[in-house]
Amino acid sequence: MPSAEFMRRAIAKAREGIAAGQTPFGACIVRDGRVAAAEHNAVWDATDPTAHAEVRAIRAACRALGTVDLSGCVIYSTCEPCPMCFSAIHWAKISTIVFGARITDAQALGFSELPIPNQTMKREGGSPVELVPDFLRDECLALFREFAAKSDRRVY
């Protein structure tokens, strides 16, 4: 059963990112009911197009847990992971992805997304990851509206 507490942790990280001039994406990785890592997108700050919230959270969780095998972990993401992030989640062996907004919602904000749904990647790639879509979707879409209202917002 997904946890509103952990999704709201991802949402809070995304808000931190928005306040820091980043984007409305946050991720939280949980193992055994405890947060292993929580990060926001930092593409602009890091000058790195791969510095997505999910990838940053995976890197931080691997460091914190001392392993590249995140089996048994759940990742909460404010948005459906892009193909790069889905692949990283698969390679890290994260068991479950819980996401709020859809990748098409990010595309509608102007982000240059490859709008391939996670369900399609799971099916076509044979990934064992469990998907829990649309969790706290309205709260995640509220982040997108906050971001869209900023006059200095930047998309990539």
- Report the radius of gyration as a whole number of Å: 14 Å
Overall form:
globular
Q: Strand share of the residues?
A: 15-25%
Number of helical stretches of at least 4 residues? 7
Strand numbers in spatial order across the main sheet? 2-1-3-4-5
* CATH architecture grouping: 3-Layer(aba) Sandwich
Largest sheet: 5 strands, mixed
So, the CATH homologous superfamily?
Cytidine Deaminase, domain 2
Helical content (DSSP H or I, runs of 4+): 40-55%
Total of domains: 1
Count of individual beta strands: 5
CATH class: Alpha Beta
Low confidence ranges: none
Beginning-to-end CA distance, first to last residue: 33 Å
Mean pLDDT: 97
* Structure class: alpha/beta
Can you lay out the helices and strands and say which pair or pack?
Blueprint: H1 4-19, E1 26-31, E2 34-40, H2 43-46, H3 53-65, E3 74-79, H4 83-91, E4 96-101, H5 103-108, H6 118-125, E5 130-132, H7 137-148
Parallel strand pairs: 3-4, 4-5
Antiparallel strand pairs: 1-2, 1-3
Helix pairs in contact: 1-7
Write a structural description.
- By secondary structure, the chain is α/β, with parallel strands linked by helices.
- It has one domain: Cytidine Deaminase, domain 2, CATH 3.40.140.10.
- Strands 2-1-3-4-5 form a five-stranded mixed beta sheet.
- The radius of gyration is 14 Å and the shape is globular.
- The model has no long low-confidence stretch (mean pLDDT 97).
